[in-house]
Amino acid sequence: MSTGYIYHEIFGWHDTGTVAGLAPASVSAGLQPYMHFENAETKRRIHELVVVSGLIDHLHRLAPRPATEDEILRVHDLAHVRRLKEESTWPKGGDAGDGFSPFGNGSFEIALLAAGAVITAVDNVCSGTINNAYALVRPPGHHAIRESGMGFCMFSNLAIAAKYAQAELGVERIAVVDWDVHHGNGTQQVFYEDPNVLTISLHQDNVFPPNSGAVSERGEGAGFGYALNIPLPAGAGDGGYLYAMDQIIVPALERFRPELILVASGFDANAMDPLARQMVTSAGYRDLTTRLMAAASQLCGGKIAMSHEGGYSPVYVPFCGLAVLETLSGSPAFVDPYLPVVSGFAGQDLQPSQQDLVDSLIPLLDDIR
Ligand code: 9RB
Ligand code: ZN
Known about the structure:
Blueprint: E1 3-6, E2 18-19, E3 34-35, H1 41-52, E4 60-61, H2 69-73, H3 78-87, E5 94-95, E6 102-103, H4 107-127, E7 132-135, H5 157-168, E8 174-178, H6 185-190, E9 197-204, E10 227-232, H7 238-256, E11 260-265, H8 282-299, E12 304-308, H9 317-329, H10 339-343, H11 352-361
Parallel strand pairs: 1-4, 1-7, 7-12, 8-9, 8-11, 9-10, 11-12
Antiparallel strand pairs: 2-3, 5-6
Ligand 9RB is lined by residues 22, 100, 140, 143, 151-152, 180, 182, 208, 210, 266, 268, 275, 309-310.
């Protein structure tokens, strides 16, 4: 098994500055400045763990190339691209669109490289130089919509790579599985009327964006049935996540028969995350990956490319990322030292409220053909 791994140190230079959590810092309001949640540390620490554990020697490291503006414009409108390009020249940078997605000077080029890194992953998986790939990128992408960035995202990295695969590689049917704890609203929007791209988002019910990702969002027109949302209640752990994978995600993939599976891989459903309230462990991410790999091997020659999204516990996210990379490559590296603690949390098993929600979605599979 050969696994492509794409990281560039410049992703750590995407500067989100200082804020006070999700609010602007304000001395008069008592809001002390602190680093933005979406700072370089969690991703940098995944990479450093990959190196220090020796896993890097079992991965096929690929150099990313920047996405071209034409590649970005398959997804975003010109005004959005022009605005980010302009604000990126400002000494202190600008904001991707919603007021809590700041970026620093030069982040436009870094965002082009992030989108291009996912293209690089897809290119190599589709040409068969590698079996699967992980693009460890910043800024993230899954909230960015056609006309704006949002939720710490500048460009919709994964949607741009999916459009590239369709336009340049002759890939028709693509499934996107988004296990970030937040709703993958941007990817969903881009493909909402497209029956050739199945978007599945597994998220904590109504966290971000507000009022987004309900079961009732199912796609429109020819795309009806090809957007699938699984909004798990707060408190879901490995049991709830794996039940959703086994009962909904894998059966949806089997019905859809993709030629390529893309994963929006956020680790913010982890048991120590400050931005959500789920309890997934590194073992949970390992098992989710194993299930997807089995589906990919049965359906599309094992072709999976993952793109990194959120995840904000600097101590725990690296072990979740390592677990996924170990599984993709079949090379065990480090044992997660926190696993005994987080897997011991009460409620890791499937709970009735989670089961009810997942079971209620089974009839939606009938609309995937
Ligand atoms: C604020 C709001 C958020 C909350 C969470 C995220 C997580 C993104 C991620 C992004 C922005 C709202 C500060 C709503 O990890 N995605 O994968 N902002 N939330 N209103 N206000 C004032
Ligand atoms: Zn997230």
